[in-house]
């Protein structure tokens, strides 16, 4: 079994189930996410697709996280996997989104930005 990279952890920040139930969301649907590392020794980039349903963002391979997408499109989330941690904030706007993330793996620190595009 592969240990998840910090990218998967950072990604989880934006694919986490909401901690509070939300009604149907303007952001429901499939989204492509791209994470870029600007500082630190993490992978330079990572891309994947998530689904938002009733304001809850999901991905089948991520387990331990907290996060939400507010009705305004504001995103705040964090995730921990073994000795890896990442958190981030941002905003979705209709068919796109962007934000910042930061994290650590062991003693190494990383940070960067993420973008989102509705499919």
Short description:
6% of the residues lie in helices and 56% in strands.
Account of the 3D structure:
The chain is mainly β and 119 residues long. It has one domain: Lipocalin. It has one helix and eight strands; from the N terminus they run αββββββββ. It has one helix at residues 6-12; strands at 29-39, 45-53, 56-58, 65-69, 74-81, 84-93, 96-105, 108-118. The protein has an eight-stranded antiparallel beta sheet, covered by helices on one side. β4 (65-69) and β5 (74-81) form a beta hairpin. Residues 15-22 have low confidence and may be disordered.
Query: Could you give the order of the helices and strands?
Result: HEEEEEEEE
Kindly name the structural category: mainly beta
**Distance between termini?**
30 Å
Low-confidence stretches: 15-22
Q: How does CATH name the architecture?
A: Beta Barrel
Q: In CATH, what is the class? A: Mainly Beta
| Number of strand elements | 8
Q: Please state the average pLDDT score.
A: 78
Provide the number of structural domains. Answer: 1
Task: Outline the biggest β-sheet.
Answer: 8 strands, antiparallel
**CATH T-level topology:** Lipocalin
> Helical element count?
1
Across the major sheet, the strand order is 3-2-1-8-7-6-5-4
Strand-residue proportion: over 45%
**Rg (C-alpha, Å):** 13 Å
Shape: globular
Topology:
Elements: H1 6-12, E1 29-39, E2 45-53, E3 56-58, E4 65-69, E5 74-81, E6 84-93, E7 96-105, E8 108-118
Features:
Lipocalin, 119 residues, 56% strand, globular, mainly beta, 8 strands
């Amino acid at each position: 079994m592969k240990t998840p990279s910090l990218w998967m952890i950072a990604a989880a920040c934006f694919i986490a189930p909401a901690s509070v139930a939300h009604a149907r969301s303007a952001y429901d649907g499939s989204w492509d996410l791209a994470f870029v590392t600007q500082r630190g020794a993490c992978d330079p980039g990572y891309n994947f697709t998530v689904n938002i349903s009733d304001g809850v963002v999901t991905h089948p391979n991520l387990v331990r996280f907290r996060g939400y997408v507010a009705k305004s499109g504001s995103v705040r989330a964090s995730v921990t996997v073994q000795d890896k941690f990442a958190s981030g904030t941002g905003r979705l706007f209709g068919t796109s989104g962007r934000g910042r993330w930061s994290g650590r793996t062991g003693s190494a620190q990383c940070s960067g930005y993420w973008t989102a595009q509705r499919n």
